[in-house]
Amino acid sequence: THSFDPATGRSIDTFPGRAVWSGGTRVVLTDGEFEITGGTATATAVRVAQRVEVVAGTTRRTVTDARTLAASPALRTVPDAARIPLITQIAPTADPGHVLVTLARLGAQQGQTTRTPAHVVVRIADGQPVHVLPIPVDVGPADLAWSPTAFVAGYGTAEVIPATGALVRSAVIVDPLGGVVRMKVDGRFAGWS
Length: 193
What we know:
Blueprint: E1 2-4, E2 11-14, E3 18-22, E4 25-29, E5 33-37, E6 44-48, E7 51-56, E8 59-65, H1 66-70, E9 84-91, E10 98-109, E11 112-115, E12 118-123, E13 129-133, E14 139-146, E15 153-160, E16 167-174, E17 181-186
Antiparallel strand pairs: 1-2, 3-4, 4-7, 5-6, 7-8, 9-10, 10-11, 10-12, 12-13, 14-15, 15-16, 16-17
């Protein structure tokens, strides 16, 4: 990650991993380790075992990692518990005490890599999951983002209507700690302004 001074465009810092700023706290998702899947003829390497770290100057502190988070009792009901966990994304919050983590599971289905995501609000102080967001994953969620001014998250999703097979797109605003849907409207979530 490269950080820049927006006024001058001058490079301020460079460090490994993907960084977000959560209410002024720099939170980094490390690249993880390679995991070889499949046989020798179809072997692929994917990154797993990512860590979520807080970075302050040259000091890095691990908040949690994919395996620890996946083993949490709060995630017992997430599908595919036997599959290898990985963290695919972190998202900043307006609250410096929390970060949103997208935890996925790796596995093979018809020769493809599949992921079953869970979106988890993690407390930065101790790495504990405080809430698993009840987000449907038929298609999405897409464009998951925290409000820059309030403790709510927004995302777009699409749900399949069983009777017709039609896809209905929705924009959803949710309270990430209580899991309460504050608003759900037809259309696409286009972010915050």
